[in-house]
Amino acid sequence: MSSQDSGQAGEKGGKLFQVLSGGALLLAVLGGLTLLQRRSEYRTLAEETETLAIQTVGVIHPTPETGQEDLVLPGTMEAFVESPIYARTNGYLKKWYHDIGSRVQKGDLLADIDTPEVDEQLSQARADLATAQANAHLSEITASRYAELLKTDGVSKQEVDNAAGDLAAKHAIVQSAEANVHRLEEMKSFQHIYAPFSGVITRRNVDIGTLVNAGNGGASQQLFFLAQTSPLRVYVRVPEIYANTIHAGLGAHLEVTQYPGKKIEGKVTRTAEAIDLATRTLNTEVDVPNRDGTLLPGGYAQVHLEVKVSGSRLQVPVNALLFRSEGLRAVVVDNNRKIHLRQITVGRDYGTSLEVLQGLDAQDWIVLNPADSLEEGQEVRVQEIAMKGAASSPAKPQAPAQGSNK
């Protein structure tokens, strides 16, 4: 019985050891699998983090322009002559004769000013002149008598000289009084406001009873604005790259929105003969006839200068450029998804887009809305953006390959 019990106990101990060994091995396998899974998850997370750290940018192609055309620039129409009309005397506006929109000829009466103070000053000055003339006449009689008495030794030579000096002083007083009268007469004549040239009244800033002062003491003292509207001046800013082709006598025509399809002929009359340092443009004046008054000063016009612009020219949106301290830059992505800050030369400004003369190619991929943090050689992910109304370039290349993210 003892041997049988010992055998059963040994058999049970062996089975227990096998169970415990199997459990430990299972735990070891499960632990290894868990470590391998976590390692794979860590590797995947690291790869995803590295992929997400690469910035994604939208890219477009520059838009090619037509091969040859006139130089088209925005311009502002201005009156050939425009002048504010001021009062030259003090008083109250008595009456005005022309309102805004009135066409007047040179010398037409525009307004009358009531000048009571000037009238009284003129009366006083005339009275002073009469007094001075009377005193001068008395001095002249006295000097004549003394000159006759000197012949008979009735008076001394000193008394004759005193009388002659007094007469000269009285004549000077008369001349001063006459000058004062003339000055006040001129001021009184300024109570009538006349048109200095033929044109149209564009502003009237006063009404009957308004107190006006002499001179241009401020905007409130301007009585009228008079403009000569035929011909009109149109000023355009020509980019520096085209400045050498602009000269007096060059043909031009205008297009305005209120007369679609109509060409208004003109010509270049003068240029500033100097490049503006702030805008790097040449200020150019184009004169156009306006006999019927259809063109209005202050209006906007598209000016076509008869300068044939040819060569490879591209357009890019203004939000595809970086404004850096070293100059204007475009961000270009190469086939390796590396970015490069490309220096460009800008031509005409179309408002929402710019003409690029140098620095880009039609096959280049440029970044739209580039961030200021982008640096030379930085790796990016690209996403092509379709531009509405953009002309597609021939043989358009594919966007730079994205590569594998795993």
Topology of this structure?
Blueprint: H1 2-53, E1 55-60, E2 63-64, E3 69-86, E4 91-96, E5 103-104, E6 109-114, H2 116-151, H3 157-189, E7 192-194, E8 199-204, E9 211-212, E10 222-239, E11 251-255, E12 264-275, E13 281-288, E14 300-309, E15 314-317, E16 321-324, E17 327-333, E18 339-343, E19 345-349, E20 353-358, E21 365-368, E22 380-384
Parallel strand pairs: 1-22
Antiparallel strand pairs: 1-21, 2-15, 3-10, 3-14, 4-6, 4-9, 5-8, 6-7, 8-10, 10-13, 11-12, 11-14, 12-13, 15-20, 16-17, 17-18, 17-21, 19-20
Helix pairs in contact: 2-3
H-E order: HEEEEEEHHEEEEEEEEEEEEEEEE
Strand proportion, as a percent range, falls in 35-45%
Over the alpha carbons, how many angstroms does the gyration radius reach? 47 Å
Uncertain runs: 390-397
Average pLDDT score: 82
What is the distance, rounded to the nearest whole angstrom, between the alpha carbons of the first and last residues?
Answer: 70 Å
Helical region count? 3
What is the CATH-assigned architecture of the domain at 57-65 and 313-384? Beta Barrel
For the biggest sheet, the summary is: 6 strands, mixed
Tell me, what is the CATH class of the domain at 57-65 and 313-384?
Mainly Beta
Task: Give a quick summary of the entry.
This protein is α+β, with helices and mostly antiparallel strands and 406 residues long. It contains three helices and 22 strands. Among the domains are: 2-53; 57-65 and 313-384, Beta Barrel (conserved putative lor/sdh protein from methanococcus maripaludis s2 fold), CATH 2.40.420.20; 116-190, Orthogonal Bundle (Helix Hairpins).
